[in-house]
Amino acid sequence: MLNVRTYPLGPIQTNCYIIHYNEGGCLVIDPGEEGNRIIAEIEKMKRKPLAILLTHAHFDHIGAVDQVRNHFSIPVYVHKKEKDWLGNPDLNGSSKYPGLPLVQNGSADKFLSEGQLTIGPFDFEVRHTPGHSPGSVSFIFTDAQVAIVGDTLFRQSIGRTDLPGGNTNTLLNSIHNKILSLDDEFIVYPGHGPSTTPGEEKDHNPFLNGF
Fold first, then answer.
1. How many helices, marked H, and strands, marked E, lie in the chain?
2. Predicted confidence band at 210 (pLDDT cuts at 50, 70, 90)?
3. Which residues form the Metallo-beta-lactamase domain (predicted)?
4. Which of 85, 94, 99, 107 has the fewest Cβ atoms within 10 Å of its own Cβ atom?
5. Fold of 3-204
6. What's phi and psi for 147, nearest 5 deg?
7. Helix 35-45 and helix 65-72: axis angle, to 10°?
8. Dist CA 209 CA 107 (whole Å)
9. Does the pLDDT of residue 149 top 80, yes or no?
10. Closest alpha carbon to 136 in 166, 93, 97
11. Where do the structural domains in the chain lie, given as residue ranges?
């Protein structure tokens, strides 16, 4: 059984996910802030983290990347289209918000592309879901009927497209072809807010009506 733990972190309450099976290691997805809390949670769980996966490289999803990576000596994965974003505040957006710290991490260790990926006991699909950002991806755990989709789709909403590289038509196509094509009962875990399902969004998401 795949266990998904959700931690809303930082000033924008970005969802960080720690996922694991009943035994073995864990994966950390989008450590956006509060690195000490993430580290403490993993150590309390007595799990060995295997990797950090990023749905995309906006600042609120990557703020604690280096702290967690360096503490556990684990690799960071991001889509190749955002390979330069981790250390560039102008690309990751942190330079656009006065009062928030600039986010500057080291480079990613590995680059994601669409297809199957295996890390330890985790065998999942990477789907390229651009629109919110050019390198946005979703992680699909078919056997568990779980999808972690970043800021592509929210409960009764969709990701913003007014940031660099964003495009509304591209986003809607990603949602329709890559997320709503999943079984209606999949649990969809977004970058902010509560989980949902494809079935719920088909019926109740006003941004998708008529698409």
1. 6, 13
2. low
3. 13-192
4. 99
5. Metallo-beta-lactamase; Chain A (3.60.15)
6. -130, 130
7. 40
8. 39
9. yes
10. 166
11. 3-204
